[in-house]
Specification:
TIM Barrel, 10 strands
Length: 283
């Protein structure tokens, strides 16, 4: 039963090492960190989940790669995942190095969950092209793959352009860590089939997963890709998700299910909540 835990917001309240070690000891398959490096004080972007005001907690994200590095240092089995990395807001030359080093020192445990963002003001101030953010994301991923797999890597695109470079170390996972595309847009499955390794839907239902699994299988076959190589990882489930719901997702074609841990102020509280989640979802 592949069940992941998503670190709650504010994401820096508790030490990532404690959360990861406790989660691993309880049998969780993965731990997920997310990012918004800044939250504009004034924003006209609506919060996707509600269409309304952005929650105050969105000003309180941790830094996912630093957090996952701390988690890696005290664990040996649990997978270390971003859910999600906002790719248009990062330089692929630096991001390739961060991911390679994390994957190396964790023994190949990194999962690269990605997205293109929804906050126009944030994306723009971080250097992204909001209106074409998925095209920019695709270019960044192409550049990352070059850096991860070539001794001498180069890339020439609209958003990223660099001459032959050396970029070491390479990731442990070959050819690279799995790239899971977030989002529920109508084109997301086509993107997964073209250049991703899996889909990371947020707040999906088992029925949606079953239908999407069939579509993804067809799209993969049309592109001469093995449908079994493209996974579905359910993200953003509530903290009270049950084992039966997890099994329903698995039967519908999902590889894993990840749920939010509740906000806690102390390690004792978080430990108790993780034990409750494990009892409800895994055992």
């Amino acid at each position: 039963m592949s069940v992941g835990v998503i670190v709650p917001l504010p994401a820096y309240t508790l030490n990532p090492a404690f959360i990861a070690k406790k989660a691993e000891d309880l049998g969780f398959e993965s731990i997920w960190y997310h990012e918004h490096p800044v939250l504009p004080v004034k924003s006209e972007s609506a919060f996707p989940a509600t269409g309304g005001e952005i929650p105050w907690t969105y000003a309180h994200f941790s830094e996912p790669y630093i957090s996952l590095a701390m988690a890696a240092a005290v664990t040996s089995k649990i997978k270390l995942a971003t859910g999600i990395t906002l790719v248009p807001e990062r330089n692929p030359l630096i991001l390739a190095k961060e991911i390679s080093v994390l994957d190396l020192h964790s023994g190949g445990r990194f999962i690269f969950g990605i997205g293109a963002g929804w906050n126009r003001e944030e994306t723009t101030m971080m250097g992204g092209d909001f209106d074409h953010r998925w095209a920019q994301t695709r270019e960044a991923v192409e550049a990352l793959k070059e850096l991860w797999t070539k001794d001498e890597a180069e890339y020439h695109g609209r958003y990223y352009d660099f001459p032959p470079v050396y970029s070491y170390p390479k990731p442990v996972q070959k050819p690279h860590p799995p790239i899971l595309l977030g989002g529920n847009a109508k084109n997301v499955l086509q993107r997964v089939a073209r250049w991703g390794d899996g889909w990371l839907p947020n707040r999906a239902t088992a029925g949606q997963v079953e239908e999407s699994r069939k579509i993804l299988d067809t799209l993969a076959s049309e592109r001469d890709r093995d449908p079994a190589s493209l996974t579905i990882s359910i993200f953003g489930q509530p903290t009270d998700t049950t084992r039966q719901q997890v099994e329903d997702f698995m039967n519908a074609g999902a590889l894993r299910v990840s749920a939010w841990a509740p906000h806690c102020e102390t390690e004792k509280e978080m430990g108790d909540e993780l034990e409750r989640m494990a009892e409800t979802m895994i055992r």
